Amino acid sequence: GAVVSQHPSRVICKSGTSVKIECRSLDFQATTMFWYRQFPKQSLMLMATSNEGSKATYEQGVEKDKFLINHASLTLSTLTVTSAHPEDSSFYICSARSPWLAGGGDEQYFGPGTRLTVT
Amino acid sequence: DQQVKQNSPSLSVQEGRISILNCDYTNSMFDYFLWYKKYPAEGPTFLISISSIKDKNEDGRFTVFLNKSAKHLSLHIVPSQPGDSAVYFCAASGVETSGSRLTFGEGTQLTVNP
To answer: Do B44 and A93 touch (CB under 8 A)?
Structure first.
């Protein structure tokens, strides 16, 4: 149980275009989804937290107009990188949390990640 | 301000021996701690967690110990297996500090040699 998927797993796009990444909780309803970014050999950097049906809360330094997050249902959140630039190239990972899962703690279940390369 | 620190970037152990991964935190409001395992180009996988009301939690080969007075937790893997080779992240959360947000350490690369 607690499976999270991401699509696509890998995407290459040209500078100036937009890219949408989907995050789905497959076997549970996620009240909260999180988006992270990971640079090589670095820890996970939280970008934003989103609750279903409400606006995402962005971390300091993350441009909300550049990284658009939509959490339209309890099983789907999307991250759109708008007007992508080469410096946006990174590994983006989503996670999902549900208070109804066994354990009931703050466990987050992660997707497999999306490798974005902007040329 | 790094509130969760894993001071060892890497650890190498022999197969069959014990692996001990350490993590320190500074925020006394953290009350829930987790360990994740991550392979390259994959998302982290949840391993084990512990609430601050406990000092030990065990799940198969994995045991997490929490020392609240020292603000220190450790993950013991015994016996270690080559498939355990991965990056291990500790994470912490606290309702009073961040709701359900997790604060991650920098990670420790564990290599288990056959």
So the answer is: yes
